[in-house]
Amino acid sequence: MGKRIIFTVVNDLQTDRRMERICSTLAGAGHDVLLIGRRMPGSQDLPVKNYRTQRLRCRFNKGKLFYLEYNLRLWFHLLFRSFDVLGTVDADTLPAGWMLRRLKRIKLVFDAHEWFSQVPEVVCRPGVQRIWEWVERNFIPAADAAYTVCASIAARYEQISGKPFHVIMNAPPLDAHYPNHQPEDPPFILYQGALNRGRGIEAMIMALHQLDIRLVLIGEGDLSETLRNMVQREGLQQKVQFAGWVAPDELKYHTCKAWLGLNVSENQGLSYYLSLNNKFFDYIHAGLPSLINSFPEYLHLMQQWEVGIAVDADADMLAAAVRRLQQDPELYARLQHNCREAAKILNWQREAEKLKVIYAQL
Q1: Distance CA 290, CA 197 (A)
Q2: 265 near 293, Cβ under 8 Å?
Q3: Measured distance CA(67)–CA(222) in Å, rounded
Q4: β-bridge mates for residue 89, sequence order
Q5: What's the rounded Cα separation, in Å, for the pair 32 and 40?
Q6: CA distances (Å), 93 to each of 28, 221, 243, in order?
């Protein structure tokens, strides 16, 4: 018999593809699923899905007051609702989940999209980091089940909480109708995702001084204005295109037109160092070779599938890697072939089966 499941996130639900996949999978398995996020000033209407969505309004939209307000709103909003399972996504919605778990006869599930207390935006503020470390250490043990995006973060969270963690990777579904990889002419390098600290974007922009190729940035974030100013300052307006946000359903068409993907984070916190980004799998499913972090999880998968070149977020190293692929078409073709083979294993169909077992066993 299906369960009544509510998931809580802090975003506005528009670009959270992991939660879209999770909610769709569980709804398709017969559960009644509601995904709760927040309505922000620029939020647009959401398309109809096989699960329900709801967005809460907040007076504050950032900082400590936002997290406090949002968790209190979640708590009051859900206190008198009837449901079976509460899925709290990341540590920033965990306090409300922990309080509801103590007051209601529900199951609590913790889904860590990242190691929250170790992301760069938190690591650079020791006082804030201590708060989130305290939340993780004290609230995760109350969860009835827990899972995260990769084995390395799962192992660290297990050490912190004493709870076993499953791994549900952020791989997209295999799609028989996925567009063929046909790079545009002239070719371009693609970065997709949030324009935030530690993503190696600045290094790639500087590498363009040594290269005859364009860079297309799909997404926005904390560094949007800073990066635009940087491009102006460096005189690279003809080589860098800011494409803004693109709807998830449309993103794959842009990805298949790129010649090379960029997925090179800086080691600015253990969360980045130990994680696997969505874009890593998106590039694979598009048959798109990429420049990849030389971090543990990526190197482990690269031992099985050579789908790109491991490189650090350094302008000279990035430029050298791009030139190597430009000068070696056989290497590029091999990486393309390996992407197609890896997609047969690294896909949501396989991850979905593991996810359904977790919720069936609650």
Answers
A1: 20
A2: yes
A3: 18
A4: 111
A5: 25
A6: 25, 21, 31
DSSP 8-state symbol, 113? S
Q: Which structure tokens are listed for 268?
A: 């600015």
Strands (E) located in the chain: 4-8, 32-39, 52-57, 85-89, 107-112, 145-148, 166-167, 188-192, 214-218, 240-244, 260-263, 290-292, 308-310
Three-state SS letters, 269-336: CHHHHHCCCHHHHHHHHCCCCEEECCCHHHHHHHHHCCCEEECCCCHHHHHHHHHHHHHCHHHHHHHH
Question: What backbone torsions phi and psi does residue 47 show, to the nearest 5 degrees?
Answer: -70, 160
Q: How does strand 214-218 pair with strand 52-57?
A: unpaired
The mean pLDDT of 116-144, rounded to a whole number, is 92
Q: What average pLDDT is seen over the chain? A: 93
User: Given this model, what pLDDT does residue 49 score?
Assistant: 93
Q: Six-digit token pair at 66?
A: 């936002």
How high is the pLDDT of residue 257?
94
> Among positive and negative, which fits the CA dihedral 108, 113, 115, 117?
negative
Spatial contact of 348 and 172, defined as CB atoms under 8 Å apart: yes
Question: 107-112 and 52-57 as β-strands: parallel, antiparallel, unpaired?
Answer: unpaired
State the Cα–Cα distance between residues 326 and 335, nearest whole angstrom.
13
3-state secondary structure of 147: strand
CB 166 within 8 A of CB 143: no
The tens digit of pLDDT for each residue in 156-189 reads: 999 999 999 999 999 999 986 778 888 999 999 9
How many Cα atoms sit within 13 Å of 312 on the Cβ side? 5
pLDDT of residue 250: 84
Task: Kindly list the distances between the CA atom of residue 324 and the CA atoms of 214, 221, 280, 311, in Å, as whole numbers in the listed order.
Answer: 16, 31, 20, 12
The b/e string for 222-237 (b: 16+ C-beta within 10 A; e otherwise) is ebbeebeebbeeeebe
Break the chain down into helix, strand, coil percent, rounded to 5. 45, 15, 35
pLDDT at 304 over 90: yes
All domains of the chain in start order, with CATH: 4-171+347-360 (3.40.50.2000), 188-343 (3.40.50.2000)
